[in-house]
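Design request, tokens follow.
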């Protein structure tokens, strides 16, 4: 029985429940434990507040109106379920391989292979979105407006890549300060917005309040369907919530730190996402926003406070760089876990003197360079193109986490292992409902047509690539698994 099981669990669990040896992830060795409580808390915040809110909310407000707040609230609930399920698995067994490691334990090497490469698809394309967002934000200032968007995207990638390769402690510090900047800016924005609404101070000729919504065809100005169709993009906004689970493998005492960080995600979503969108809708008509500019910058620009728009633009630029930083970090760890098991290229398992898996980070950054190309050739559409592809990776990753959680729950019901005291509520129904929701999002992507439908049509291609990739690596995977099976008894005897 796990030593993490609470006293209450021990008293209620069958005393005769069999005990099994903990799964050993070959990619967990070699990391430092330099991430502290403040890092994990801010990483959780940074994961819940990203480019999808700061940039993506503008175009989605224009397309769905104030009903976007409802979409953020609903998707936020399911995002919380996903990260809470991952949190339970992390408390059962912390691992830098995170859900890939759990997929390996509960679904076998095939499941780990699929989970890892879907996650890579998520973050390699998200990296393209992030550098695109950074380039768009930089062009807000006249000093950068004449520089090609692709050049700015390349500079953003180079700066964040250099910082990520130093050490995990440096990554944690960057995310700590990035998150503080984001949270402070949102708090200030919301305080100013609430003041404007309460005092009825006109913004660009509009008196803020519920009349701004009612005078512009209400909460659903274009009907309910547009709100449903933006759900895919809203899911993208929550793409980093699982990051704190990956970071747990480089954290001291994750059993104490992680539950608090995960539990706080729910109210952060409620305040920062839903609250911000509601305030945006109260301040200006939904038609005042666009995909070309952060909605926060739009509001600050309309208020007319000298320098306010520039400051907010700097903040949203920080958010884009933070998301890129997180993506490079997490894929580096996931790819190393896969490499050590044989399902990713050998070089992605390499670590530098700072105990950073630089091979996987460089591979993800390499795909980010493709995003630089998009910024050169289709700068106006680059962001939307990549988030459609990234959404498939996100949905696949979330599905894998919930499937692992479901299999974990089933084994606990069979008495094969004990769940930690920090549990996903209402299991197994939570996992099932979440999987149904994710399937519904895929259907909505198809139903909405356009780029979303094209992305769904890519699913068979992605599936074929995963199957083909597995057959390419399965020989090496099986050989390494057999080798570990021979050495593990001797290692356990020494321990």
């Amino acid at each position: 029985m796990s030593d993490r099981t609470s006293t209450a669990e021990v008293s209620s669990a069958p005393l005769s429940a069999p005990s099994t040896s903990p799964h050993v992830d070959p990619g967990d060795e070699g990391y430092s434990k330099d991430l502290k409580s403040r890092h994990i808390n801010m990483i959780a915040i940074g994961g819940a507040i990203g480019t999808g809110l700061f940039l993506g909310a503008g175009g989605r407000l224009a397309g769905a109106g104030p009903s976007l707040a409802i979409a953020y609230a609903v998707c936020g609930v399911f995002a919380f379920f996903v990260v809470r399920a991952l949190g339970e698995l992390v408390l059962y067994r912390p691992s830098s391989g995170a859900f890939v490691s759990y997929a390996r334990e509960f679904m076998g090497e095939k499941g780990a292979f699929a989970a890892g490469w879907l996650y890579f698809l998520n973050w390699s394309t998200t990296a393209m979105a992030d550098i695109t967002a950074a380039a768009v934000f930089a062009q807000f200032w006249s000093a950068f407006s004449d520089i090609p968007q692709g050049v700015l995207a390349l500079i953003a990638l180079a700066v964040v890549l250099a910082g990520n390769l130093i050490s995990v402690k440096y990554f944690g510090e960057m995310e700590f300060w990035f998150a503080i900047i984001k949270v402070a800016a949102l708090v200030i924005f919301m305080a100013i917005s609430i003041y404007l609404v309460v005092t009825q101070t006109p913004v660009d000729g509009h008196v803020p309040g519920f009349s701004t919504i009612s005078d512009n065809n209400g909460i659903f100005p274009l009907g309910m369907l547009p709100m449903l169709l933006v759900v895919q993009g809203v899911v993208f906004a929550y793409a980093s919530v699982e990051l704190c689970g990956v970071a747990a493998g480089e954290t001291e005492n994750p059993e104490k730190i992680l539950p608090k960080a995960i539990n706080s995600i729910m109210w952060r979503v409620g305040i920062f996402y839903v609250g911000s969108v509601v305030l945006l809708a109260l301040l200006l008509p939904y038609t005042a926003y666009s995909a070309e500019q952060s909605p926060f910058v739009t509001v600050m620009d309309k208020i007319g406070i000298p320098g306010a728009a520039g400051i907010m633009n700097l903040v949203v630029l920080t958010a884009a760089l933070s998301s890129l930083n997180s993506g490079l970090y997490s894929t580096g760890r996931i790819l190393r876990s896969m490499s050590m098991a044989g399902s990713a290229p050998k070089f992605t398992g390499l670590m530098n003197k700072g105990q950073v898996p630089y091979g996987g980070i460089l591979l993800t950054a390499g795909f980010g360079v493709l995003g630089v190309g998009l910024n050169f050739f289709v700068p106006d559409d680059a962001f939307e193109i990549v988030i459609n592809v990234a959404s498939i990776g996100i949905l696949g990753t979330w599905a894998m986490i919930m499937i692992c959680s479901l299999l974990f729950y089933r084994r606990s019901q069979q008495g094969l292992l004990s769940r930690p005291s920090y549990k996903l509520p209402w299991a197994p129904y939570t996992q099932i409902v979440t999987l149904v929701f994710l399937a519904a999002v895929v259907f909505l992507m198809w139903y909405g047509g356009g780029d979303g439908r094209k992305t769904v049509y890519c699913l068979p291609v992605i599936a074929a690539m995963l199957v083909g990739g597995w057959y390419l690596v399965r020989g090496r995977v099986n050989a390494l698994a057999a080798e570990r099976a021979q050495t593990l008894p001797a290692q356990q005897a020494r321990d």
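Comment from the thread starter after seeing the answer: thanks! Residues 98-138 form the longest helix (41 residues).
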